[in-house]
């Protein structure tokens, strides 16, 4: 889980960094909204090797079952494939499957593509597919993708090239996961032979995607090489070798990109803009993710709704957008941004516009604090110091809180410590409020709002509202898009009133690469789709 009113500007073709992002200009120039790239020139030249940095650091594994971790997903998305994939519009497109039949609300019959082979030349069978899905459902594996199967009755091979998924009750979310790592296919024989070592530098993975692993020098780099036997001959990659490095320090990232030692990176630090100006292409795309405050402790000061309201009112939204995000984000009224409304846009828009615009009101905050008996209690705000924007935002919130009488104590965490918050109750001990960022894997608001129902693994703060839960569970059983949108929008309004989460911004996706390259449009889906297959020489 740990990633507006918009008029998207379209940029056809590539541009220099200076032209796209005003790098090296005045502070006001750098705070202006950035141009959103929705198309670029297709590559025309083959490239022998591209060096790409993964700012989240070296992955612990390349097992797609663990690809909710961005360091894993950025690489594994080019190695392993699902039954479907997401197109540029975030809609499912055939991949290892050609189609899916849905004869009744509880049944999906998936037809597999003929002639697909793993990197080792062995054919992909229905048994490989069923094994791959069931493997993720094993709690011992610890894959977060297990969550899709809450209503699963069973999955089995039902023909030479078909598998059938049966549900216990209707679930509108399930078809989306056919294009997610929950249904990424690995070779059964190699996974069983590797055991717990599967995905590691010692055993690797065996998949079907456009690239295959060539070498993994632990602590240094991972090299992939093109899979020239990839079934998708219409999309043959133009980059032969991909070399991934793991520079996590923002200053070192900037230096490596500026010198040309590294050719590209997703999520370039905003502080790098001026230094990279004119050296390559920095492109921005709409994301489907929020940055928000999440209440973890409902028993402390934040247990009082007045304190949560004061917190919402003290935030300098305009200042954060201008000075922290520098034109690379948009304001947010609800937890799920409008870019993630994949259906029912009119319904979502009408309800979204009813929500109050986030504005700073210090007088209101002071009044709420003065009238609350709990407001004097300490509020511990956790955030990751590995993300510069989060650190600056957290500091700004804590400083302003003093002005209205709230006592916010900052708790900076390393990337590893912050990641543990999402899996370990012990890591959340002593944290009242979390500054988090997340993203939706596909444009379905329900997929994010379901996290805050009673009993959900990700409902860390123990939010409980029967009316909210009823709306969410009814939406999950509703296949009609308009009806589902009305139910989800109702739940959205309830959550917004309860203020268990306080949305701040939705930040753009960015990608930087050398000017000799082209073909890569920045989209949130890079974590689940083979993005490197579109890259090549300009």
From TrEMBL:
InterPro entries for the chain: Peptide/Ni-bd, SBP_5, SBP_5_dom
UniProtKB keywords: Signal
Gene3D superfamilies linked to this entry: Dipeptide-binding Protein, Domain 1 (3.90.76.10), Dipeptide-binding Protein, Domain 3 (3.10.105.10), Periplasmic binding protein-like II (3.40.190.10)
Solute-binding protein family domain location: 92-454
Pfam families: SBP_bac_5
Keyword Signal: yes
UniProt entry tagged with the keyword Protease: no
Name of the protein: ABC transporter substrate-binding protein
Organism: Actinomadura fulvescens
């Amino acid at each position: 889980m740990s990633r507006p009113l918009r008029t998207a500007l379209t940029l056809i073709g590539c541009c220099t960094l200076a032209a796209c992002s005003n790098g090296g200009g005045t502070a006001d120039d750098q705070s202006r909204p950035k141009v959103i790239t929705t198309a670029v020139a297709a590559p025309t030249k083959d490239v022998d090797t591209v060096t790409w940095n993964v700012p989240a650091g070296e992955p612990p594994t390349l097992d797609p079952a663990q690809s909710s971790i961005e360091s894993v997903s950025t690489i594994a998305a080019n190695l392993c494939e699902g039954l479907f994939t997401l197109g540029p519009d975030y809609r499912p497109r055939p991949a290892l499957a050609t189609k899916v039949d849905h004869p009744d609300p509880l049944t999906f019959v998936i037809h597999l593509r003929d002639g697909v082979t793993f990197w080792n030349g062995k054919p992909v069978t229905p048994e490989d597919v069923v094994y791959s899905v069931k493997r993720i459902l094993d709690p011992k594996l610890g894959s977060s993708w297990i969550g899709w199967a809450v209503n699963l009755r069973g999955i089995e091979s039902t023909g030479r090239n078909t598998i059938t998924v049966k549900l216990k009750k209707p679930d509108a979310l399930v078809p989306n996961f056919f294009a997610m790592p929950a249904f990424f296919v690995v070779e059964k024989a190699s996974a069983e032979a590797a055991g717990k070592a599967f995905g590691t530098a010692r055993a690797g993975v065996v998949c079907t995607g456009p690239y295959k692993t060539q070498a993994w020098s632990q602590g240094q780099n991972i090299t992939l090489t093109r899979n020239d036997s990839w079934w998708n001959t219409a999309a043959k990659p133009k980059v032969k070798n991909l070399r991934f490095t793991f520079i996590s320090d923002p200053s070192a990232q900037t230096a490596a990109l500026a010198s040309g030692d590294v050719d590209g990176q997703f999520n370039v630090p905003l502080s790098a803009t001026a230094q990279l100006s004119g050296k390559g292409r920095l492109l921005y795309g709409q994301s489907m993710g929020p940055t928000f405050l999440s209440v973890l402790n409902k028993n402390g000061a934040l247990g009082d709704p007045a304190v949560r309201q004061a917190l919402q009112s003290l935030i300098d939204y305009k200042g954060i957008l201008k000075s922290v995000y520098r034109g690379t984000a948009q304001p947010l009224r609800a937890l799920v941004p409008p870019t993630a409304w994949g259906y029912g846009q009119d319904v979502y828009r009408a309800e979204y516009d009813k929500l109050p615009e986030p504005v700073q009101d210090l007088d209101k905050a002071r009044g709420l604090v003065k009238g609350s008996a709990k407001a004097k209690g300490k509020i511990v705000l956790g955030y990751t110091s590995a993300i510069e924007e989060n650190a600056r935002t957290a500091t700004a919130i804590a400083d302003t809180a003093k002005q209205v009488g709230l006592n916010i104590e900052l708790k900076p965490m390393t990337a590893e410590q912050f990641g543990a918050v999402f899996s370990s109750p012990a890591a959340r001990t002593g944290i009242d409020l979390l500054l988090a960022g997340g993203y939706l894997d596909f444009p379905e608001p329900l997929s994010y709002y379901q996290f805050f129902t009673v009993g959900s693994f990700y409902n860390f703060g123990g939010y409980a509202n029967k009316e909210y839960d009823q709306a969410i569970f009814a939406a999950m059983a509703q296949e009609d898009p308009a009806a589902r949108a009305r139910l989800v929008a109702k739940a959205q309004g309830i959550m917004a009133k309860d203020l268990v989460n306080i949305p701040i911004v939705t930040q753009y996706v960015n990608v930087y690469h050398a000017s000799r390259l082209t073909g890569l449009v920045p989209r949130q889906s890079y974590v689940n789709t083979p993005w490197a297959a579109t890259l090549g020489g300009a």
